[in-house]
Amino acid sequence: MRRDLEPVGHLVRHWRVNRGLSQLALAERAEVSTRHLSFVETGKSAPSREMVLVLASALDVPLRERNRWLLAAGFAPVYRDENLAAPEMGELRRVIDLVLSHHDPFPAMAVDRAWNVLATNAGARRVIASFVADPAVLAEVGTRAMHLLFDPRGLRPYVVNWIEIVRATVERLRHEALEDPGGGADALLEDLARYGPLPAFREILVGPPRLLIPVHLRRDDLELRFFTTIASLGTPTDVIAHELRIETYYPVDEATAAWARSGVS
Predict the structure, then answer these.
(1) pLDDT along the chain (265 residues), means of 10
(2) Is residue 244 domain-shared with residue 221, that is, in the same domain?
(3) CB–CB of 166/216 below 8 Å?
(4) Residue 36 sits in the same domain as residue 153
């Protein structure tokens, strides 16, 4: 076992407590004895590779964290974790390009679990260019989608329903923080709070993320109204694909649809 990793039993217990489960409840989910689970958590028993995966599945642990469990238990990771630019990820890149291009002329983008933009279509680039005129801001913010939204020099001044967007965003990030404590959502919330006050997000009661969120943009004479939704391409064997999300925007009114179509060459 690598020295920089916690014992796998500690990881199991941490996630069990995070999920609000007793040892009995987890043992029933995983169909193992409470005694054996207790021995795994205390380090008295070394779990097999299969047991590690069974417990991780019962706790709905993200694939990236399951690889960490396997390493901590002395086994090789089983979920592929390649950079999106790697040759092995060519099929996934083609799928992303297909989905984004087929959504044109309406905006769409692919983001990772930290809300870094991995790819955008022409519709998304046109919206951003229409509302963020300063190239220095885009250069500074880079691919950080949430920062582009919250930065006062970015999209924020042009979001008419700002309060609604802030609350929906905070609710989603809090949900992600609960589902994947190591995923960085809490740290991202702290970063976003530096741009201005946020709701008391640690006190927000988190439910399922909203399926459709309205986005109302206005700058001078240009006014656009969209609904946005987020979908996953997750697969059970690939970390990057499992974490990847596609955010698509749909026009609410004909004026918005006509503006989007007017940009098609």
Answers:
(1) 70 93 96 95 94 95 93 93 85 92 96 92 94 83 90 93 89 84 85 82 57 92 95 78 92 96 78
(2) yes
(3) no
(4) no
